[in-house]
Amino acid sequence: MTDRLARSARQQRARLRDVAEAAGTSTKTASRVINGDDRVAAETRARVEQAVLDLGYRPDPLARSLRRGLDETIGVVVDEVGDPFFASVIGEIERMAIDRDVSVIIASTRRREERERIVLDGLYQRRVAGLIIASISDNHAYLRHSSCPLVFIDRAAEDLAADAVVVDDRGGARMAVEHLLRHGHRRIAYIGDRLSTATARHRLLGYRDALDGAGIAADDALVAEVEPADGDAGVAAEELLRLPAPPTAIFSANTRCSLGTLPTLHRLRRTDLGFVSFGDFAMADTLTPAITIVDHSPEAIGRLAAERLFSRLAGDEPPVETIFAPLRIVARGSGELAPDRPRP
Amino acid sequence: MTDRLARSARQQRARLRDVAEAAGTSTKTASRVINGDDRVAAETRARVEQAVLDLGYRPDPLARSLRRGLDETIGVVVDEVGDPFFASVIGEIERMAIDRDVSVIIASTRRREERERIVLDGLYQRRVAGLIIASISDNHAYLRHSSCPLVFIDRAAEDLAADAVVVDDRGGARMAVEHLLRHGHRRIAYIGDRLSTATARHRLLGYRDALDGAGIAADDALVAEVEPADGDAGVAAEELLRLPAPPTAIFSANTRCSLGTLPTLHRLRRTDLGFVSFGDFAMADTLTPAITIVDHSPEAIGRLAAERLFSRLAGDEPPVETIFAPLRIVARGSGELAPDRPRP
DNA sequence: GCAGACGAGGTAATCGATGTCACAGCGGTG
DNA sequence: CACCGCTGTGACATCGATTACCTCGTCTGC
User: Are B249 and B182 in contact (CB under 8 A)?
Assistant: First the structure.
């Protein structure tokens, strides 16, 4: 009674101690019941459970994490939360986390290595149970002794044995460019992310693979490396079209580049160009012409990564693996335009 | 020395105790230095600061939160992380949080009231310092005694005196519909979110205001209330067009409805319809015709909400206020089509 | 009949930091 | 000279839960 008053005076939740007192046991026994330890007499267990219900007790996650050294939280580190690709990935991860009563802390690197360190450090300090990381760094030495499972997404860590969920960047890029080649294009430009990220490098290799396969000499003037966050992709497209021997088709190596390039092409009325985008985006199938894509479903990546992480958190120890998310080409129009098509 | 070995054997970070020992003081004094308490002799302070640097000490956020009853974390609750509107809002909030060394926990309600309770409860248990909420519930009684500052976004809490950053839903909708009226449309359809959310109700009111102002009788057959997460918006559009007296223009009351409706209109080759979207989206200006919008910049909302929250966290106590994010119409083509335009 | 296993439960230390309170020294004051 | 108040400091309790270790019966096997 007094106790209940004390609680209400404090305006606070019930603590384990309150439960124990209400059930007439020690906190240890109450803790056993709550954590499903079976060395508790059925009758005692029942009393504790009743007290939990009566008091609406729920363990304090902070105190629990402090003691256990582990939090019921996973961290997700991406380039930028607002990026549609990552927004979808995160959405899917969160969906899976919800089912497991795990919270998700999001942090973005803004594509800067030093920030990557900082945010990871912060997440470790919070004792996250696991991490899903789209790393932009090439050096993961500082993660080697990670105290929690890691799953890399979008880009595998080449210097670290850790799970990763990626797409076959090289193969996908090759697929995209071969598609354009099949439709008769011979001068195909590449617009992609800075080559400081491994993803970009692989996609550029795939682009070259395809050209090699068709016996076409690579022309560096057709390769544009841009910062996709800015409006650079559109500018790059404009420059490509001003070349003495301009391309008849463009392969855009990621979604943000596509979002940057297409408004420019439309403004210049150059929708006669062949175009394939690595990565889908809203309205891609509603533009005129609709945009042919190589699709690496962000939801699938999020799901696979989360599944892997939760499986490790549950104690499974499958061998470290790089999982390739399925990849396919979706022909919608822009990739099937012949090179000699008249300009609109 | 022994201590340093012990630390490295533990493979762990330095604790306050390690700092205190290294500086030859008590933990309390070390704590004083770290928290900027000025009742410490300059020389002692210097020793502690040196120890902090030597050991690379950083306080454990968990332990600190437990003791202080307050975490350096803010919670953000939205419908759905993957929603482009909220993704941008979150991106902006996070950007501001970074500057203040505050972490952000994201939770989504999936538009279900019971989940809203659950996630908020979870965030409170984590002792978040503040909350930014896009609430879907109409009943906020359980938030009345919130232990931390709240800022509502997108939808104000009508039953609670709390800060909110919203757009003038009614005025914006009216603006959009008046735009279509000015271009000669008389039968204008409304496609919007379920009326269970206040936002949707206000936008529908604005739509009616505009029609009233033009002396046009409202026709309920032209009003479609859909679940924007599904493909319902497209279906609704199709049904509207099959009416005996179909609309010549559509006002889409939110981004997701636009993303659902437009592919359908394009598929049906009904791009002759007038169209205004409440909310911008990628490629809106690249479609043919480009989409006229009423823009409620998600970044602005995120920034204003975060500014407000951080100002309260810093101890400011401005009067509770509902802030209206700026709203403007961006004419791009689809809203300026005359009703008698031939179909493509 | 007794050693040891086992079941049920409790006590106290611990996680890492901070709040409370007491205390030693010192200069000033009546 | 005794007392006051201030400064700088530390011992110890505390936040809420978990873990290491111990106790006390009772049951089993020899």
Answer: no
